[in-house]
Write a structure and sequence with these properties.
A 3-stranded antiparallel sheet has the order 1-3-2. The chain has helices at 10-17, 21-30, 48-59, 64-80, and strands at residues 7-9, 37-39, 42-47. The protein is globular and about 35 Å long. It has a single domain (7-80), classed as Multidrug-efflux Transporter Regulator, Chain: A, Domain 2. A hairpin with a 2-residue loop joins strand 2 (37-39) and strand 3. It has 81 residues and is of the alpha+beta class. Helix 3 (48-59) packs antiparallel against helix 4. It has 4 helices and 3 strands.
Length: 81
């Protein structure tokens, strides 16, 4: 089990979502997924809790507009800290 604050690397996120890396960046560009967290000396990635919630929303059949709201909420939480 992963720590919810752990950062997942891009290849792991792509594998978990069942998509390519370019699809992940496409989702970021469309506002469906938050941009990856930049880490000094390490590859960028996403907080585990964001990816888990994002995948749950996709499985539940949320619309793109609903998922965009979720992504904006994640970004506001990142900025609040």
């Amino acid at each position: 089990m992963q720590n919810m604050y752990e950062i997942m690397r891009m290849k792991d996120v792509a594998k978990m979502a069942g998509v390519s890396r370019s699809t992940l960046y496409g989702w970021v560009k469309k506002g469906l997924l938050t941009p990856p967290v930049k880490r000094v000396g390490k590859s960028p990635g996403w907080p585990v809790y964001e990816i888990e919630r994002f995948n749950c929303a996709r499985i539940a059949g949320w619309t793109e507009d609903e998922i965009k709201v979720l992504a904006r909420e994640f970004m506001s939480l990142r900025c609040a800290r």
